[in-house]
């Protein structure tokens, strides 16, 4: 194309845009047609003329122009979406589907295209295809309130349809699997049931998210089977003695420190409400791998039991053990721990009604004297909705799947980190 033609097309385009801005649709159309006479594949002219034709109700002409546009260009999602809308208006479902596919080839994550595909499949009664399309909408869509108001109803429809499909699918599988589950009575099928619930959307998938160190290949579970830790029997049997030691230190009102204690220059995120607050406090018996002398001496029975636990040895970091005190009407926000090489054990000592713990999808109400073990690198939270104190003995233990050799190497690694940083606790695991 000669430079003179290029300049002429540019001038015509400026005039056409000015005419559109003034609302002079007929004048704009003549100018766009003039451009197409010189450049038959001009994207802006094709798009603008198709829009004018659609507004005038000339669907066939609008589609012909858009077909030319995607054939000549097709690099923009909106070109394909416009074609899909015209095909929808013409009740051409095959053309509509092809246009939506073209949009998703350009951008597989385009939310509008995904919504259009879900609505097409729902309209066609293609239930299983619609389920997959709605699942894609659910995977891509941000929170509804952040979407443009005109898009929210369509996204809400796709999400609701997906939930309804999953409920129906889940009910069918529950009935189908019922005899098979009865055949397996006596077996521990919790993992299977949890996996099924996650697949069906009845539960959310929670993966370990250690803040600092993730050890590959360790089993991840919200709560571990209590029977796998027989040494906890001694702790449970001594619950009354441990509680008495706690009540004695509580009466003296000394040694309790905020559980969360960040400096002013640290990002608080979810901890702002609890930072440096005694609403969630700790009476620390072992801290950063060392016994807290003054506190430990006041709780000899508890310390003797802790010596029998498989506590993780990471110099300057672990083991740790404390009485965790949650005041009335206090909630600990969702958070994750630092490393999956150790698990967290709880021995509930004082648990009024209205207290609970969630780890992943699983919620428990503590029972005084009944220990539990969980992976705190899975998102967890706790609450005390009562008007009394909640008190739990908390301590960490090695993950039971770690061999002695692995434990020794983790201990050595921690010492190496200390040697590099030259400060205990400079890098917490």
Automatic annotation (TrEMBL):
Superkingdom as given in the UniProt entry: Bacteria
Keyword Oxidoreductase on entry: yes
InterPro entries per UniProt: Asp/Arg/Pro-Hydrxlase (IPR007803), Asp/Asn_beta-hydroxylase (IPR051821), IPNS-like_sf (IPR027443), TPR-like_helical_dom_sf (IPR011990)
Cleaved signal peptide residues: none
Keywords from the named record: Dioxygenase, Oxidoreductase
Pfam family, one: Asp_Arg_Hydrox
Domain Aspartyl/asparaginy/proline hydroxylase: 237-400
Stated family: Belongs to the aspartyl/asparaginyl beta-hydroxylase family.
Protein name stated in the entry: Aspartyl/asparaginyl beta-hydroxylase domain-containing protein
